[in-house]
Design a protein that fits this description.
Elements (H helix, E strand, L loop, with lengths): L1 H4 L3 H13 L5 H10 L6 H12 L5 H13 L5 E7 L5 E9 L5 E7 L6 H14 L5 E7 H6 L1 H10 L11
Parallel strand pairs: 3-4
Antiparallel strand pairs: 1-2, 2-3
């Protein structure tokens, strides 16, 4: 109930993502409850968010990417795709777009904790180790950019080859 009535909308959606990411529940179970709890404030937006979470979004920033793609009519990315790096270690990418030529664009989203030296250093190494020349390109953005410099980020993604999707008729 806190997410629907006491929290800000953004915090309410983030708690849904955190609950699923921490495996306390599933997006499907939460979605079922949005129909059972009546009245439930924010139910329609929670259902949209839970669809994104069910599709692989694990954080508030990843939910923002889904909203950005819908708002700017970009093809949605694959999320949380498992990759082995050059050392054989399993890594999970935030967002990936597959292109017709077989290449892949990876977008890694850095929240504020990524600014700490040990995280930043590990992120740099990780990006290098999952990059494959001519096959997989890794680019990074901040959670701030997704929320506050969206049009600039979209322009960069379009320049890197992310396609637009046709707009639906109203």
């Amino acid at each position: 109930m806190w997410a629907a009535y006491d929290a800000t909308p953004r915090a309410g959606h983030a708690v849904l993502a955190a609950s699923v990411q921490q495996r306390l529940t599933t997006a499907t179970r939460l979605l079922e409850w949005t129909y059972r709890l009546k009245p439930l404030r924010r139910a329609p937006s929670f259902r949209e968010t839970l669809a994104d979470i069910g599709g692989g979004a694990h954080s508030g920033a990843e939910l923002d990417v889904a909203r950005m793609c819908r708002g700017f009519h970009l093809a949605p990315p694959a999320r949380q795709r498992g990759r082995n790096d050059r050392t054989g270690k399993r890594r999970w990418t935030d967002c990936e777009w597959d292109f017709p030529d077989g290449s892949v664009l990876v977008l890694e989203i850095d929240g504020s904790f990524h600014m700490e030296v040990e995280h930043w250093d590990a992120d740099l190494k990780r990006s290098r180790r999952i990059t494959r020349p001519g096959q997989r390109t890794v680019v990074r953005c901040s959670a701030y950019e997704i929320r506050h410099e969206t049009a600039e980020l979209v322009a960069d993604l379009l320049a890197l080859g992310v396609p637009r999707v046709p707009q639906r008729a109203a």
